[in-house]
């Protein structure tokens, strides 16, 4: 194991010791023991910056299951490093925040930090694995730890509901992704991402290419809360706020983004990829932004906003993949979409993390997150207000914050879509900038609602449980650091362009780079009077108008969204599946032995008839039959009449006697067919059986008056005729298809010479095949012991008595 | 003869199945009795019928019937007897305890406790 492997699994290892720290050092908040690790890892990952900036990657491999090609290969390239820094950096800030957010003596801190560390390790594993199976394993671990974290307050109904929902949806996507991984393996013969990318051109026309593409995208869309799978994210807000801030805004929901970026070199050239990624992304963007305006809960607004921003990044990645079609251009303007995606990814992590933390502070200090109860908090919480206003302005895309820059680049990319001359974009392309623009207006509106409804307006102390006041300093450190980054990246965006964005782009679009080249990224604040600037102006003006008139038009929401609510669809789907399977099981598992026998017999008839017909196996060959004797025919008639009349007699006694008669006839058959031992045994046993029958049922007089004739049922009759016919048919064809002679010649010749006996049947029973007899004796012994036990052992009676 | 026997066996199977699909426990056991008769006769028939003398050395027979199916049937008879006896006593006991021999009325234990 290299240092890199240790870095990935370090959080998992530390999680083992957390309960010990929690038990031993009860007076120290457990979070302090966690905090050093993400900081250390952050510093460690920073040391990779020179490597990726020079265009190199770092690979470390460790054998896990080499015979299946599954090795724990860790790879650090631009993209992986960017995500690792986000995970560890924001992880450290979130741990610090949680130390002040979660009370030491009220919460189960040991569980919280174990889950959080599990998640951190899993997430590092996802972004740094080069092996797809290992990536999948870590992927599921993120779903799992997220499930645990959402259900952290498991005594609350809503937490459990949210946890279950996110689990079902993300695991569904994860499973689809596993399918995609296996399809890729079938096509390429390797689980290594690097090698899959190198074979991208060869598999492009493979029949499994499109199914693999769809499967992988399902995984990405469910994890990154894209339409229509976003519904788990708003319900995941039941988690503690540090969790929402970390998992559901900055890291886990970006795992899908990571996956799409990672697989862009493989699938990016396909038109389906473009349409799915950018189409679903832009739909999610507009859908999320419109629905965010409707919410009244701070975290719900932020959740829908996350959905919408993730859609934005996703659509940028889709448009960026189209750049692969313009490889011939020296100045490929379409790569700007990828630049914007990476840049916005960083920006979103900073401002959304700080906004969640601010919302957590408001919740913590006032006791509610409902914006209808909040208002006028500006004077009580000036620092939180400052944090919020910077975060929301960045989210709305207002200068001078970093959100403005990425929004400008987003518009640039969307405007470039019109210039593309592929995939019918000459005509449909106009939708992209229009959708993007409308979504930005709504983004502006909900951003304004978020900050101004909370902090300005009328202060309503009667609706609040607590007297609001500023948060403790420790709680403010993390969001202050994040908003400082918002400002720093806003003013000096090129700090990032060479160090992080360019290497990440090199990982997303490797084929566009010649050897030794790198993407020249330059993010400028002022780019002249371009169309993007006017779009932003329009967003601000229309946004302000809509915000001012919000109270007048918000009623429209009451009419539309309920019908479009996907939650209702999800709930009824879940309920319907449960109800349906319950009904289905009820319908055939009805508890009646007769029905089960009908299934069994019907299946028997069906499968045998199908085989007989399908294989053309029925054959009737009369050359091998023995002569028909008069006695045998008489006996046969006897058996037939006897057994059929059992069906029609009324009395049980008669049917028992008829069964005995059939048994005795069978023993006469044995006589005629020259089987003296059989005849003897059959005679004796039939006598005992009949006696037993009589003993059992003669002494139960009270039941005799209920005796009736069997009622005729057509299904029963059909089934039994079918069974009889099948047995006859198979007996006939088996008899007509003798392939080999019997082995009995050996017994006939050696009974006397080898075993010193003259009765062949007896010699076979005790000498040649004595084992059968041994266990047959055992069967009898067990049966008699069982009967004895049944009669003697009466535990129920004793209890009652 | 084998063809006639095949039909006889088929009829035994048919009646056995019909009885096993009935509600009365006794009829089900009668059905299993018929089913085992059918199966035994089937083994014998498939071995070939009347191909010589009874399989006991000592006479002056040239050929014997196949002894192997007879040994198999003998084992099967004993086993099915053991199982039938057990089943019968089980039915007898369930009569005593439950007061019914209608299998449709024997459903689960939910109501009992």
Automatic annotation (TrEMBL), chain A:
Reading the lineage from the top rank, the first entry is Bacteria
Membrane spanning residue stretches: 6-25, 32-53, 79-100, 112-128, 134-154, 166-191, 203-222, 243-261, 273-293, 300-324, 336-362, 374-398, 430-452, 473-492, 525-547, 596-613, 625-649, 656-673, 679-700, 712-732, 773-791
| Keywords tagged on the record | Antiport, Cell membrane, Hydrogen ion transport, Ion transport, Membrane, Sodium, Sodium transport, Transmembrane, Transmembrane helix, Transport
- Which biological process terms from the Gene Ontology are attached to this UniProt entry? proton transmembrane transport; sodium ion transport
Q: Which residues form the NADH-Ubiquinone oxidoreductase (complex I) chain 5 N-terminal domain?
A: 65-113
Q: GO MF annotations for this entry?
A: antiporter activity
| Keyword hit for NADP | no
- Per UniProt, residues of the MrpA C-terminal/MbhE domain are 713-792
Which coarse location class describes where this protein primarily resides? membrane
Task: Give a single Pfam family match.
Answer: MbhE
InterPro entries, A to Z: CPA3_Na-H_Antiporter_A (IPR050616), MrpA/MnhA1/PhaAB (IPR005663), MrpA_C/MbhD (IPR025383), MrpA_C/MbhE (IPR046806), ND/Mrp_TM (IPR001750), Proton_antipo_N (IPR001516)
What is stated as this protein's family in its record?
Belongs to the CPA3 antiporters (TC 2.A.63) subunit A family.
Q: What is this protein called?
A: Na+/H+ antiporter subunit A
Automatic annotation (TrEMBL), chain B:
Output the superkingdom of the source species.
Bacteria
> Which InterPro entries does this entry report, sorted A to Z?
CPA3_antiporter_subunitC, NUOK/Mnh_C1-like
Task: Write down what this protein is called.
Answer: Na(+)/H(+) antiporter subunit C
Primary localization: membrane
- Asked whether the keyword Cytoplasm is assigned, the reply is no
Specify the protein's topology with respect to the membrane. Multi-pass membrane protein
Give the family per the record: Belongs to the CPA3 antiporters (TC 2.A.63) subunit C family.
| Keyword rRNA-binding in record | no
List the residue ranges forming a coiled coil, or say none.
none
Keyword terms of this UniProt record: Cell membrane, Membrane, Transmembrane, Transmembrane helix
């Amino acid at each position: 194991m290299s240092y890199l492997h240790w870095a990935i699994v370090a959080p998992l290892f530390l999680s083992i010791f957390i309960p010990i720290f929690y038990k031993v050092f009860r007076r120290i908040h457990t979070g302090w023991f966690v905090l050093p690790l993400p900081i250390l890892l952050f510093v460690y990952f920073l040391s990779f910056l020179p490597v990726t900036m020079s265009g190199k990657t770092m690979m470390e491999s460790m054998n896990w299951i080499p015979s299946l090609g599954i090795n724990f290969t860790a790879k650090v390239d631009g993209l992986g490093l960017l995500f690792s820094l986000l995970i560890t950096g924001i992880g450290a800030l979130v741990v610090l925040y949680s130390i002040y957010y979660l009370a030491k003596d009220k919460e189960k801190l040991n569980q919280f930090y174990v889950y959080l560390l599990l998640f951190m390790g899993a997430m590092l594993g996802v972004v740094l694995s080069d092996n797809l199976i290992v990536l999948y394993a870590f992927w599921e671990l993120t779903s799992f730890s997220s499930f645990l974290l959402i259900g952290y307050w498991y005594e609350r109904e809503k937490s459990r509901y949210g946890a279950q929902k996110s689990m079902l949806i993300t695991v569904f996507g994860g499973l689809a992704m596993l399918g995609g991984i296996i399809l890729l393996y079938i096509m390429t013969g390797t689980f290594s991402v690097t090698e899959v990318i190198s074979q991208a051109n060869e598999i492009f026309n493979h029949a499994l290419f499109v199914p693999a593409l769809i499967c992988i995208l399902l995984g990405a869309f469910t994890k990154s809360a894209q339409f229509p799978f976003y519904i788990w994210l708003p319900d995941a807000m039941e988690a503690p706020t540090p969790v929402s801030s970390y998992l559901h805004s900055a890291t886990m929901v970006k795992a899908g983004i990571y996956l799409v970026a990672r697989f862009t070199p493989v699938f990016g050239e396909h038109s389906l990829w473009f349409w799915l990624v950018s189409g679903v992304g832009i739909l999610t963007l507009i859908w999320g932004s419109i629905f965010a305006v409707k919410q009244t809960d701070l975290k719900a607004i932020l959740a829908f906003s996350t959905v919408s921003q993730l859609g934005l990044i996703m659509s940028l990645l889709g448009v960026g993949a189209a750049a692969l079609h313009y490889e011939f251009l020296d100045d490929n303007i379409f790569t700007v979409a990828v630049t914007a995606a990476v840049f916005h990814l960083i920006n979103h992590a900073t401002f959304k993390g700080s906004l969640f933390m601010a919302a957590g502070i408001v919740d913590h200090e006032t006791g509610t997150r409902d914006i209808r109860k909040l208002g006028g908090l500006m004077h009580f919480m000036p620092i939180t207000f400052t944090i919020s206003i910077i975060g929301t302005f960045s989210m709305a895309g207002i200068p001078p914050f970093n959100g403005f820059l990425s929004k400008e680049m987003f518009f640039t990319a969307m405007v470039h879509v019109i210039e593309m001359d592929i995939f019918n974009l000459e005509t449909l392309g106009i939708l992209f900038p229009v959708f993007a623009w409308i979504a930005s207006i709504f983004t502006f509106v909900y951003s304004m609602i978020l900050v101004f409804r909370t902090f300005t307006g009328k202060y309503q102390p009667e609706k609040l449980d607590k007297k609001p006041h500023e948060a403790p300093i420790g709680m403010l450190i993390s969001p202050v650091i994040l908003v400082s980054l918002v400002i720093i990246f806003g003013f000096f965006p090129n700090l990032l362009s060479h160090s992080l964005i360019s290497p990440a782009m090199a990982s997303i679009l490797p084929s566009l780079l010649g050897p030794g080249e790198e993407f020249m990224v330059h993010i400028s604040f002022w780019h002249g009077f371009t169309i993007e600037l006017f779009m932003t102006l329009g967003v601000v003006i229309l946004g302000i108008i809509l915000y001012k008139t919000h109270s007048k038009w918000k009623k429209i929401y009451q009419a539309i969204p309920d019908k479009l609510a996907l939650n209702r669809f999800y709930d009824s789907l879940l309920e319907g599946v449960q109800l349906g399977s319950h009904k289905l099981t009820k319908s055939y598992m009805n508890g009646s032995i007769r029905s089960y026998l009908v299934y069994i017999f019907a299946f028997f008839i069906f499968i045998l008839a199908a085989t007989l017909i399908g294989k053309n196996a029925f054959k009737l060959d009369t050359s091998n039959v023995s002569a028909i004797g008069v006695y045998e025919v008489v006996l046969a008639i006897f058996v037939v009449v006897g057994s059929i009349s059992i069906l029609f007699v009324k009395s049980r006694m008669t049917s028992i006697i008829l069964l005995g008669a059939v048994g005795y006839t069978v023993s006469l058959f044995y006589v005629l067919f020259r089987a003296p031992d059989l005849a003897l045994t059959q005679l004796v046993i039939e006598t005992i059986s009949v006696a037993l029958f009589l003993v059992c049922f003669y002494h139960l007089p009270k039941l005799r008056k209920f005796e009736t004739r069997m009622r005729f049922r057509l299904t029963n009759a059909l089934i039994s005729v079918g069974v009889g016919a099948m047995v006859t048919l198979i007996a006939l064809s088996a008899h007509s298809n003798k392939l080999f002679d019997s082995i009995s010649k050996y017994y006939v010749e050696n009974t006397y010479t080898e075993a010193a006996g003259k009765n062949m049947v007896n010699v076979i029973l005790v000498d040649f095949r004595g084992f059968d007899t041994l266990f047959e004796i055992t069967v009898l012994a067990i049966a008699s012991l069982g009967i004895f036990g049944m009669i003697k052992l009466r535990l129920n009676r004793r209890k009652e008595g | 003869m084998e063809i006639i026997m095949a039909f006889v066996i088929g009829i035994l199977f048919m009646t056995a199945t019909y009885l096993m699909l009935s509600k009365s426990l006794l009829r089900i056991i009668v059905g299993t009795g018929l089913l085992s008769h059918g199966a035994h006769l089937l083994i014998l028939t498939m071995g070939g019928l009347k191909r010589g003398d009874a399989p006991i050395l000592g006479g002056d027979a040239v050929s014997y019937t196949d002894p192997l199916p007879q040994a198999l049937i003998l084992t099967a008879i004993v086993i099915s007897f053991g199982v039938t006896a057990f089943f019968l006593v089980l039915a007898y006991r369930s009569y005593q305890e439950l007061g019914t021999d209608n299998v449709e009325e024997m459903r689960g234990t939910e109501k009992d406790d």
